[in-house]
């Protein structure tokens, strides 16, 4: 009985092994692909990598760098927002520069006040004082002259009545009074003439210099508010409130490099595609007038025709996808720019990588 049980168990094990081998040996039906890989639609088309960017008639995206250094105090826009040229985007701490502007403004106003004072001369009150001094000097002269005349007449009548010393002192006093009157009259004429023309010219130059310094400081203060340089859409803001920025841009802790403070794109309906043609394929490019291209969006079955715009006739080193200028490969590429009308039902963003085939128009 025991041997029969073992035989049954062995037979069952063998059958289970055969069934398992059959099941695992069956080929599973492959799943259908999520999307069809991009295929060359042209007989002699060439494949290139493309990157989506906002369409510009010249250049790439609008990269905004600050002209001054400082701490970001306020960000006035958000990514994806459409702005007009001149709209404020971001503010930098301007406390020191604002104080400098106020100081130079006060200096310019003080210089202007002194210039106006020079031009307003002679002042009536100063003329009245100078005229009073002339009258006072004239009165002193009359007193001194009368005293001298008395002493001289007494001396002529009786030389013993007045000493020679007294007569000389009276004459000297009259001469001194006459000189004082002349000085007072000259002081009056000087006050009446007003400020010297050279003093006015010198003060004008000082005021102009201080005013220009004030205007330059005001212009520099205006740069502490970053403004949109053109109409467009905010694509990227690479700083937060409290970040320190400089004319080099904003420091990126991930790439350990400097990025533009703000990246703007065009608000037009057209979207640009920058294609990098490998140097070994440049000779296979058709003429610009006969160039045809089609773009395939990765991860989808979506593809669309492209319109040729221009090419940058300068073969440059290819940059890795990190977009850091220090990361280059030993390949040189020719940039060719196309554009297309952005579909409303498809999400496409600047910076997105696409597959592009470039061929030649028939005929």
In short:
This protein is an alpha+beta fold. It contains 5 helices and 17 strands. The strands form 3 sheets. A 6-stranded antiparallel barrel has the order 1-12-16-14-13-17. A 6-stranded antiparallel sheet has the order 6-5-3-8-9-10, with no helix packed on it.
What is the strand and helix layout of this fold?
Blueprint: H1 2-25, E1 46-54, E2 62-64, E3 70-75, E4 82-83, E5 88-92, H2 95-120, H3 124-157, H4 164-193, H5 197-222, E6 225-227, E7 232-237, E8 244-246, E9 249-252, E10 257-259, E11 262-265, E12 270-278, E13 291-297, E14 303-311, E15 316-319, E16 328-341, E17 353-360
Antiparallel strand pairs: 1-12, 1-17, 2-11, 3-5, 3-8, 4-7, 5-6, 7-11, 8-9, 9-10, 12-16, 13-14, 13-17, 14-16, 15-16
Helix pairs in contact: 2-5, 3-4
Give the class from helix and strand content and strand pairing.
alpha+beta
| Quaternary organization | single chain
User: For the largest beta sheet, what order do the strands appear in spatially?
Assistant: 1-12-16-14-13-17
Tell me about the biggest sheet? 6 strands, antiparallel, barrel
CATH architecture descriptor text of the domain at 46-55 and 268-360: Beta Barrel
CATH class of the domain at 46-55 and 268-360: Mainly Beta
User: Per the principal axes of the C-alpha atoms, what is the gross shape?
Assistant: rod-shaped
Mean pLDDT: 86
SSE order = HEEEEEHHHHEEEEEEEEEEEE
Beta-strand percentage range: 25-35%
| Low-confidence blocks of residues | none
Q: What is the total tally of β strands?
A: 17
Q: Radius of gyration over alpha carbons?
A: 47 Å
- Distance separating the two termini: 90 Å
